[in-house]
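forwarding from the other thread:

> can someone predict this with S-adenosyl-L-homocysteine?

sure thing
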Amino acid sequence: MNKKNIDKDEIKKFNRIASRWWDVNGDFGPLHKINPLRLDFVTKNIKLENKQVLDIGCGGGILSESMDDIGAFVTGIDMASDVIDVAKLHQKESGTNVNYQNISTEELASTKQSFYDVITCMEMLEHVPSPNDIISSCSSLLKANGYVFFSTINRNFKSFLFAIIGAEHILKLLPVGTHQYSKFIKPSEIEEIARKSNLELVDTIGINYNPLTKKYYCNSDVDVNYIMCFKKISAWTKPNLMLF
Ligand code: SAH
């Protein structure tokens, strides 16, 4: 395994545009707009008040800060150091208490096993060389019965048209080159890796965009953007009663 599981070009790309993170009309505008939707999905599945929450690939802290606001104890990690600096700077203004760290998921997993109640890993798996390793590290980091949320982009002709041609080239919602089609992941692929790490699927939701109203909304259509929620089950399996 690539010990840090990092794509250096991706990190450079995020560092380069780090200062624009909190511009709601800028490059990260879509993340600001979908944030209430994804926070709703998380809190519908698990209450965050007084929970230890880890936000992996937290970026400038849009989701981290919103989870802190509702009473979670949030740690935000990201491998782009300039992005973490922006997150730290922003929280001086917002007065939130997120613990931001420039550390890899795998490194944290070696010291914080079974520590977190909830993990969020949003719009990040499609930027790493091995999503499998992130998913299995999430399982190690979670307490038994803990919840983890992954959001990413599906891989099919429609997602190529909508997420790359539409979002980057036509509507210009995101900078050109934000996403690579080959890094997109099907929900069934995430589910298979998750199952091998003792993560059981709880819920899935699609996040979609209406270019006419310029609004994002949730429904069951997971063809393009989607979020999956998993619960960590214990590795213990029922004894086979036939043996007794
Ligand atoms: N999760 C945030 C930001 C998504 S953008 C949100 O949805 O609001 C993707 C983020 O993943 C960037 O901040 C990028 O620096 C980070 N990232 C990319 N590769 C990473 C890795 N290997 N480990 C941790 N963070 C990574």
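The two ends are 42 Å apart (CA to CA). thats all i got for now
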